[in-house]
Design goal:
Immunoglobulin-like; 184 residues; four-stranded antiparallel sheet; 2 domains; mainly beta
Length: 184
């Protein structure tokens, strides 16, 4: 029963270790940082009664070296070490779908919806052409209705995820409106 990690995500993991100390017999020093970069290490003090801790705000797709050092005035416990690799960063959108096409509107939806995305921008315009329009969509939504379009026209639709970190990721799809009814 040793120091190990559970609940690993792209930015956090939970450390779990055997109960070696009590509230009265000492505390733990926890050192962690990306492997191979001693300057980037952080140290935390953890009360002796604790046997788990969540580390968050970590870099995605990174191997962290973790050392748990029991600081006891009663017994000597050797440090426990482990390595944990965070998951690669999830990206959005990886899929853009067009549905409910009519002569003057269509629905745009995308996936996945991630907590790390602050907002989405939906840019659409007829092909060929450069008269694109922009819709802003809240980061918790995964679809929007595009309206006031021309019938029987092909549109290029680009969905851009604006991450809280400032990064952006875009994905495009083509959409065709239906022919309008004659005589209108």
């Amino acid at each position: 029963n040793r120091l190990h990690a559970t609940d690993v995500t792209s930015s956090s993991f939970r450390l779990v270790w055997p109960q070696l100390l009590s509230q009265d017999s000492g505390f733990y020093s926890l050192e962690y940082g990306p492997g191979g970069d001693p300057a980037a290490r952080s140290t935390l003090q953890v009360p002796g009664a604790q046997s788990s801790l969540v580390l968050s705000q970590l870099a995605p797709g990174t191997t962290y070296e973790v050392a748990l050092i029991p600081e006891s005035n009663v017994h000597y416990f050797p440090p426990q070490r482990t390595r944990v690799t965070t998951l690669p960063e999830e990206i959005s959108p990886v899929q853009v779908l067009i549905s409910d096409s009519g002569p003057r509107s269509f629905q745009v939806s995308w996936a996945p919806v991630l907590d790390s995305v602050a907002s989405y921008q939906v840019l659409y315009g007829p092909l060929p052409g450069n008269s694109a329009k922009l819709l802003q969509v809240d980061g918790s939504h995964n679809s929007t209705l595009v309206q006031h379009l021309a019938p029987n026209t092909t549109y290029l639709v680009t969905v851009t995820a604006i991450y809280r970190s400032g990064k952006e990721k875009s994905l495009s799809a083509k959409a065709c409106t239906l022919e309008g009814e004659r005589g209108q």
